[in-house]
Amino acid sequence: MATTPTDPVQVRSGDGSAPASGHIGRIVAGSLATGLVAALLLAAAPFISPGENDVTGAVLCGFAVGWAMLAILSSRSTDQPQRWAAAPALFMGLSGLLLIAFGGDSRAVLNWAWPPALLALSIWMGLQAHRHLRSPTRRWLLYPVIALMAVVSVGGGYETVREHLDASRYPMSGQLIDVGGHRLHLSCTGSGSPTVVLQPGGGDFSSVLAWIAPAVAADTRVCVYDRAGRGWSDPAGPQDANRIASDLHTLLQRGNVPGPYVLPGHSFGGLYVLTYADRYPSDVAGLVLIDSTNPGTHADPTKAKAYDTGSYDAATDRVAALGAAAARVGLVRLVGSLAYGDLPPQSRDEVRAKTATADYASGWIDEFVQANASGAEAAMLTDFGDKPLVVLTAGADTDATHDAAQNKLATLSTNTSHRVVEGASHPALIYSERYAKATTQAILDVVTSLRNNEPLAK
Fold it and tell me: What long-range pairs does 258-261 form, CB within 8 A, spacing at least 24?
């Protein structure tokens, strides 16, 4: 009479061998689940620094726990010992500890070393699992995990090679200027006054302005720059609007760019130029708010403070660290490979390359975390006098709330023009050649108003 195995996952293997004992399927599933939980708990542990190297190292140590658990429990409790699992446990555990202890110093070497090592380990693990494990979990759980490790290794190797090639493929124009502990990229072209200093939107940098900067440079001097952690600039700490305005002010002074300036700002860049105008009013001759993010409702100094302390910031730093880790395995590059298609080819490729890096990923997350603080800081500008101000609103991406906020921005000056660009989406005002012409014209209208000392045409 046939018997029923006590463990539902214990089945006769395809080669006719006897079913295994000791609940090996449950041990495999439980060990991998334990590794995942341990990785998440260690990444969030308060004794782990929220930096990228420490968080990544903690995740690896957590996964190492799972593989070690599989090696030990399968050897002690079943007739299918998976001693090979000690190898990934040792590899991940040592790698994690090295990252935590020496990550900053060893990162350049590790970026080249870990992808081929992990790929070789993944192939070897697959062979060992095929040889030693007789359980359905091999096919529906263990093989997919090993395949994912192989994919990560290939993605990490590809990202490392691409970043190395991108460094020579997309050389920096202009110069790097120290603004106090970190350097910012600045590039100025054209001649004439007033000087226009372009401020791109959240997550963007100078290359996205490829349709606008050359067109403005044909009429006056124009400068583009990269905020900290963007483009060719060095990364820095939390970047709220006050910090960005202060960095820009230092950059223009040390870069010998005389003011006063016309400051166009797109999206989040609108918050930054409003804050700059509030902090340095004598430096600003005119503003162009290009579908600006809406500032805070009221000017409240108590809210105009960056989130740079406390547990909230620590949690955000850990998320940013995981974002940076995702960039190092090529995931960010993959997601962004179809973006920015409306820009000129060279600029499009520059943006795709620069936004795929770990520094960009962590900085992008931080910038959006600072949104409330930046909005409150921008709201401190309540009166722009009679200086020329153009407010551009994207006609395809608006609603009653946004319209009301844009109308309010237009009341900051007595010399203002509010223009709705019909058919334009929020990004199209910068990325699209067709709609970027409306942005360029708005900038040149402010320049002309200042040169002729005449009010803006409504």
Answer: 258/195, 259/194, 259/195, 259/283, 259/284, 259/285, 260/194, 260/284, 260/285, 261/194, 261/195, 261/196, 261/197, 261/285
